[in-house]
């Protein structure tokens, strides 16, 4: 019985030591990968630094298309506008309420024209 316990203890100790060694190897690989990534990002940043002289800022124009609000006549960004397509024409609105009002007013005008 005592021999079995000794054998079991040696076996468990072997498993624990093996796990420790595997963990250490994995940590080394992880650190190596991190260093490679840092070197790659630093080389990318270095190439950007070479392109741009220090002390100068490069401004790149951003193309923001402006459109006119159909109700108020204000200039608004096309990306922030509400749109309505009717008869192959696009109408732009700054608020959803303006868009709804335009829809209702044009429906009333169409009804009035149909009645005449």
Key attributes of the depicted protein:
two-stranded antiparallel ribbon, single chain, alpha+beta, 2 domains, 2 helices, 116 residues
Describe the protein's architecture and organization.
- By secondary structure, the protein is α+β, with helices and mostly antiparallel strands.
- The chain has 2 domains: 1-50; 66-115, no CATH class.
- The protein is built from 2 helices and 4 strands, in the order H-E-E-E-E-H.
- It has helices at residues 2-51, 96-115, and strands at 66-68, 75-77, 82-86, 89-93.
- A hairpin with a 2-residue loop joins strand 3 (82-86) and strand 4.
- It is elongated and about 110 Å long.
- The model has no long low-confidence stretch (mean pLDDT 83).
Produce the secondary structure layout.
Elements: H1 2-51, E1 66-68, E2 75-77, E3 82-86, E4 89-93, H2 96-115
Antiparallel strand pairs: 1-2, 3-4
Offer a concise description of the structure.
By secondary structure, the protein is α+β, with helices and mostly antiparallel strands. The protein is 60% helix and 14% strand. A two-stranded antiparallel sheet has the order 1-2.
């Amino acid at each position: 019985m005592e021999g079995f316990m000794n054998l079991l203890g040696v076996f468990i100790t072997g498993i624990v030591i093996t796990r420790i060694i595997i963990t250490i190897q994995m940590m080394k690989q992880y650190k190596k990968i991190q260093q490679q990534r840092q070197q790659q990002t630093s080389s990318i940043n270095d190439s950007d630094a070479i392109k741009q002289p220090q002390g100068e800022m490069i401004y790149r124009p951003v193309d923001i298309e402006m459109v006119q609000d159909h109700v108020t006549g204000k200039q608004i960004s096309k990306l922030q506008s509400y749109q309505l397509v009717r008869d192959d024409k696009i109408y732009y609105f700054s608020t959803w309420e303006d868009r709804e009002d335009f829809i209702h007013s044009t429906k009333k005008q169409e009804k009035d024209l149909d009645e005449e």
